[in-house]
Amino acid sequence: MYIQMAQGKCDRQDEMRKLVDDWSSAMADREGWLGGTYGFTDDGRFVGVVRYESAEACERLFADEVSTKRWAAAQELCQDLEMHESGDVTMMLDGGADTAGFVQVMRGHIGDSERFRHLASDEMMTMLHQARPEVIGGTLAVEPDGSFVETIAFTDEESARRGESQDMPEQVRAELESAFADVEFIDLHKPWFASHR
User: Fold this and answer.
1) 21 in a domain, yes or no?
2) Sign of the C-alpha dihedral, residues 122, 126, 131, 136?
3) Using CA atoms, how far apart are residues 22 and 98, in angstroms rounded to an integer?
4) For the segment 81-126, what is each residue's pLDDT rounded down to a tens digit?
5) Rg (CA), the chain
6) Cα gap 190→153, rounded to integer Å
7) Number of domains within the chain
8) What is residue 124's predicted lDDT score, i.e. its pLDDT?
9) Residues 83, 7 contacting (CB under 8 angstroms)
């Protein structure tokens, strides 16, 4: 899997949503495009996390005329639109679901890569899901410089907030703190999704 994450300040949200929906609809039948998770933050940023089968599929689809025109239009609608991308992707649980009522995107840097890999393992994610059943799944993409984009899908925000308020075992807390650095939490209260048809 290959992931692209775009974000930027967006005051014209209705236009941006239509642009994203039109592009997703145009991509939905294209080989190599898997889907996307989108939303706007409380401070008016657009965030889009798009999944492709591979780096080659991303390069091919993002370079075609449909995508280049819409990317140019997105740059007109959003200020300081930036892109992050990586093929170093870990799927957590089933990767999430289009039924998620709340999505949290995390941006930061890896402090301890070995511990980081352990925390993203199937075993750890199964344990997390047992303790936090509102966690549907997620994706985690690591860039070559050690920065990462993690997307976690929840059934709903109320359950997510209730779950995060629970006390965490000290060992788990210590592992998380050493694995990640400079983490920014980006909340998408009203996410929307697109998937390959």
Assistant:
1) yes
2) positive
3) 18
4) 999 999 999 888 877 788 999 999 999 888 666 666 666 666 666 6
5) 17
6) 12
7) 2
8) 67
9) no
Tokens coding 178: 């050493």
> Final residue of a domain: which of 61, 86, 111?
86
Distance CA 142, CA 94 (A): 18
Residues 134 and 103 in one domain: yes
**Residues 55 and 103 reside in one and the same domain:** no
| Domain with 156 in it | 88-188
Q: Across the chain, what does the average pLDDT equal? A: 88
Distance CA 151, CA 37 (A): 9
Write the DSSP assignment of 19-68 as a string of letters.
HHHHHHHHHTTSTTEEEEEEEE-TTSEEEEEEEES-HHHHHHHHTSHHHH
Q: What is the residue-wise DSSP string for 158-194?
A: HHHHHHHTSPPPHHHHHHHHHHEEEEEEEEESS-EEE
Q: 22 with 36, same domain?
A: yes
pTM: 0.88
Taking only the tens place, the pLDDT of each residue in 128-152 is 767 778 988 889 898 988 899 999 9
Degrees to nearest 5, angle at CA 115 with 111 and 118: 140
